[in-house]
Amino acid sequence: MQPKFSPFETSLWYATAAPAPETGPLSGDEKADVCVVGGGYTGLTTALELAKAGVEVVLLEGREVGYGGSGRNAGHCTPTFTHYSLDELRRMLGEPWASRLIARQTRANDKVSAYIRDYVIDCEWVQNGYVMGALHPGQLADIEAKVQSYNAVGARTRMLDRDEVARVTGSQRYYGGWLHEEAGHLNPLGYARGLARAAMQEGARLYTRCEAAGCEPAGGRWKVRTAGGSVTADKVIFATGAYTVAGWPKLDESFKIQKVFVAATRPLSPAARLSVLPRNTTMHDGRGDIFVYKYNAEGRIVASMFPMGRRGADIEFTKRVLSDRLKWLHPQIEEPVEWDYLWFGELDMQYRTVPRLYDLAPGVVALTGLSGRGVPTGSMLGGVLSEWALGTSTNDLALRPEPLHRAPLYMNYGPPLTLRYYRVHDWFRSRMSGAALPPHA
């Protein structure tokens, strides 16, 4: 059973993020052109884009800005897709939808960078790239295919050979790697709070600690009710992701939850920092059962993994797994690895691992299913949702609107079984190639 920790108590980001703008709950009845429900990246960027366009917009957040996945993630900002290749997405989504979504996602870091620059957001942003390593030779062909497919759509990526990946990462374990030069990392809660400040600066009205309790027709418009009041608007957008709890019937059944945990070490010594990720990149060890890590501004390693069995349930064992993996990859770390922070989050998983735009009623939509690509994906989705609210034809959007439907039953066990499959698959391929196995593999 996963421990029930509050991110306020155990998250590095809550200890270090720049303060949130002053907000409070809604009291009374208000009117707007658009009501956005959800104060994560998707909702905040939607409100920001609409306010910039002169639209009167109110945003309602049940807890505080960035309370959900936008404030709990590991801070990686890599504008890619998970699980499926670009060709697989084209076959699955069809055209022109696939090409539109691929274009938005692969250029999403342009949006992130522009928001941070234009609104002077204090969030530890660095854009030093992302490396996916190859822990056995059999991965090199897959990585070469990634280089070709992503470069074909305008991304700046390249293959690293064994010597270069060692120079970039400080690890001798990798046979090669994929460098995505446009990727970055940041303090995700600081970024969410900065987006909130930017939206308010542009004229959006933000209310926190006021959960949407329902949404019903009101004289040709829509009324979103909260405990302290209501917002009557022409259009309503639900952008609550994995933390959907109320507001529209059965919206929380449109995805399945995948748990994730993130941990942060004490700052590494200056000597260790010279040889561990010396270029301050984000690092993915390349295994399907992922281990992803990078630095924060203080020189702490911030690492994330998925819970599996005892890992994630037993906190001391979990920290040992993290330490063993990090030191296996970087045996030059001579000092003890101490984990000062460890917290949990939730992903709203879809079997396609891409967002789903649901047409709930005339003038009401919802978006769920970011599936773990929160920072870049949430940042670009504000453009998609604001275009919908501004009247762009649904045939011209980057996401095809669809009726609300329940996530397939196999999603109850699909994600954890997939992780176990990846673990066995990686073990088998490593053994067959003679590559060393990481601890706890």
UniProtKB/TrEMBL annotation:
Pfam family, one: DAO
Organism from which the protein derives: Pseudochelatococcus lubricantis
Protein name: Glycine/D-amino acid oxidase-like deaminating enzyme
Entry superkingdom: Bacteria
InterPro entries: FAD-dep_OxRdtase, FAD/NAD-bd_sf
Keywords: Oxidoreductase
Record flagged with keyword Oxidoreductase: yes
Domain FAD dependent oxidoreductase: 33-388
Gene3D superfamilies according to UniProt: D-Amino Acid Oxidase, subunit A, domain 2, FAD/NAD(P)-binding domain
Keyword Oxidoreductase: yes
